[in-house]
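Hi R.,

As promised on Friday, here is the backbone we talked about, encoded as structure tokens. Could you run it through your design pipeline when you get a chance and send me back a sequence?
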């Protein structure tokens, strides 16, 4: 950018001030000419239209060249419309912004001159060859003269040039590059679709090539529509659909049999005496596709055979190529099918390993049943763990967003998190750790907020089901104020746990949430403290670990006496402390409580 502004080599980028760098970047980003962004909605629809045209070209064009005669029907006008679409796509390439990657940077081309130069050096020649009007080459005056080019074989050979339209299929690679980040289908399914498409397209193209060569060689075979109206055979055989060249040739004279092909043999031997019409393009295509499939799959019935030297050469090449393609597809499909269900394969391997170990060590059957049940139930837990591992290579912010989405319905039901920001919940979601427990197993996760992801838990006298939670009091600093109720699994249970250290490591970065959690901790601590004090006062027994509770609450109780104390002491005078008054004795060993203690 600096070289374009000041001239090559006059200033280096690091020698410019920040203001000059900002001005140069702003000028470089300004829109100077009409350009198209490949990510716009218009380009998305245009790409879809081009894909449809490419599919039409890959399927219809070979069939048209091999089996159809030149005409001006509906197919002709559809082909011309597709040519116009491809021409417009060529024009778009001169205005479409291009991004390419170098080892250390990503470059976006936004200048039309550079875009044109890049396109002219790349796909322009292929695109141009694909839209030329090859259908009308045989209509040129020079080709209709009496020269050698006017033979039937030359005209048929000129139709091969129309197959250059198939070069448009290579555009699919450009479209895949633009759409690769929008596709959410698994790579295994994409590969399966790719190999299935390769198999179908290979058979289709091989059949079309086989049919074209048969038509190219079959000069001794004529359909009724190919004959001139003055031909006597039309009047002599009004019901015949096709005719053969007449002559009494020596079977041992190869030069006399020029014009034969597999289509002629098919018409004489297979189609004769049957309702099969070898002049019908659909019938010939079905026969050609049949030959291609039995050749590709190595079945080889042998009822459609090469006749001419060119057909033998084509059959040899087709068998070599198709055998490689078939072996590659079979091997690739086996690998893909294996990789599509790796979790099932891993589970089967774990189950087989355990069964082998249990058999070798003579483990009791009851333990075997428990272990197999645990392995089956743990599949869902391992699947969730692998889902988390799949995001380990992403950026922290993106990883947190995915974790928030995966745990949205778990955190959403916890009152502590209802008023918190989305960014805070996103960070907290990344600290949720999955745990899996067997039936009747005791859950021991002290100092953690637990959410039931799957299963049922009995905690104290409460039954906690899916999306239920406990352990909100982990926000309290004093462990004595937390409820230490036993939690036991009634079924195989998966629990997500948030540890206290992870929560308070995140809170300082969020001022509002830090205030909310400290206020909640203060209210909960006060409520638990009052409950403990009231319980001990009612029981008349004082536990040494609650000395700080009495030190905190006794002065409050004396200042705000209850109704019972007021009725027992109507004068309102404080009773003299005696041996039974433990408030002073218990509190004498600890410092006076203050706000920090609370």
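Update: got your reply. Pasting your designed sequence below so it's all in one thread:
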């Amino acid at each position: 950018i600096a070289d374009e502004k000041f001239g090559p080599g006059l200033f280096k980028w690091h020698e410019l001030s920040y203001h000059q760098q900002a001005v140069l970047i702003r000028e470089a980003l300004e829109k100077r000419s009409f350009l198209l962004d490949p990510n716009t909605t218009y380009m998305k629809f245009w790409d879809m239209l081009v894909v449809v045209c490419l599919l039409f070209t890959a399927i219809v064009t070979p069939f048209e060249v091999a089996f159809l005669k030149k005409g001006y029907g509906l197919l002709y006008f559809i082909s011309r419309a597709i040519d116009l679409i491809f021409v417009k796509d060529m024009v778009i390439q001169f205005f479409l912004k291009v991004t390419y990657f170098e080892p250390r940077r990503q470059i976006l081309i936004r200048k039309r001159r550079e875009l044109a130069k890049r396109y002219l050096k790349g796909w322009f020649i292929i695109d141009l060859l694909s839209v030329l009007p090859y259908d009308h080459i045989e209509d040129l005056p020079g080709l209709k003269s009496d020269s050698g080019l006017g033979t039937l074989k030359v005209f048929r050979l000129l139709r091969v040039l129309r197959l250059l339209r198939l070069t448009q299929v290579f555009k699919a690679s450009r479209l895949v590059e633009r759409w690769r980040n929008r596709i959410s289908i698994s790579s295994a399914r994409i590969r399966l679709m790719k190999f299935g498409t390769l198999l179908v397209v290979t058979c289709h193209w091989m059949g079309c090539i086989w049919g074209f060569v048969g038509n190219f060689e079959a000069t001794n075979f004529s359909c009724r529509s190919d004959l001139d109206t003055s031909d006597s055979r039309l009047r002599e055989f009004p019901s015949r659909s096709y005719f053969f060249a007449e002559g009494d040739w020596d079977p041992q004279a190869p030069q006399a049999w020029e014009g034969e092909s597999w289509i002629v043999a098919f018409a004489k031997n297979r189609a004769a005496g049957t309702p099969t019409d070898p002049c019908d393009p659909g019938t010939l295509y079905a026969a050609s596709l049949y030959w291609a499939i039995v050749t590709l799959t190595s079945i080889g019935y042998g009822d459609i055979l090469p006749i001419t030297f060119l057909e033998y050469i084509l059959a040899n090449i087709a068998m070599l190529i198709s055998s490689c393609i078939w072996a590659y597809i079979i091997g690739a499909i086996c690998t893909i099918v294996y990789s599509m269900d790796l979790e099932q394969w891993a589970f089967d391997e774990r189950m087989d390993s355990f069964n082998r170990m249990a058999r070798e060590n003579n483990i009791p059957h009851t333990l075997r049943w428990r272990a197999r049940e645990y392995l089956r139930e743990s599949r869902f837990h391992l699947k969730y763990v692998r889902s988390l591992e799949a995001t380990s290579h992403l950026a922290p912010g993106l990883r947190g967003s995915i974790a928030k989405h995966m745990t949205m319905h778990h955190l959403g039901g916890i009152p502590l998190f209802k008023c918190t920001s989305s960014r805070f919940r996103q960070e907290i979601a990344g600290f949720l750790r999955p745990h899996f427990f067997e039936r009747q197993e005791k859950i021991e996760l002290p100092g953690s907020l637990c959410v039931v992801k799957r299963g049922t838990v009995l905690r104290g006298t409460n039954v906690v089901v899916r999306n239920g939670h406990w352990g909100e009091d982990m926000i309290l600093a004093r462990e004595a104020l937390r409820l230490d109720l036993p939690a036991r699994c009634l079924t195989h249970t998966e629990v997500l746990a948030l540890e206290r250290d992870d929560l308070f490591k995140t809170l300082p970065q969020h001022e509002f949430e830090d205030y909310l959690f400290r206020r909640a901790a203060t209210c909960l601590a006060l409520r638990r403290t009052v409950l403990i004090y009231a319980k001990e006062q009612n029981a008349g027994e004082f536990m040494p670990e609650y000395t700080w509770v009495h030190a905190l609450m006794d002065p409050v109780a004396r200042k705000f006496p209850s109704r019972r104390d007021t009725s027992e002491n109507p004068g309102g005078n404080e009773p003299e402390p005696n041996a039974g008054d433990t408030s002073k004795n218990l509190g004498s060993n600890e410092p006076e409580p203050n706000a920090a203690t609370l």
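One thing I noticed while checking it: The CA atoms of residues 198 and 467 lie 47 Å apart.

Thanks again,
M.
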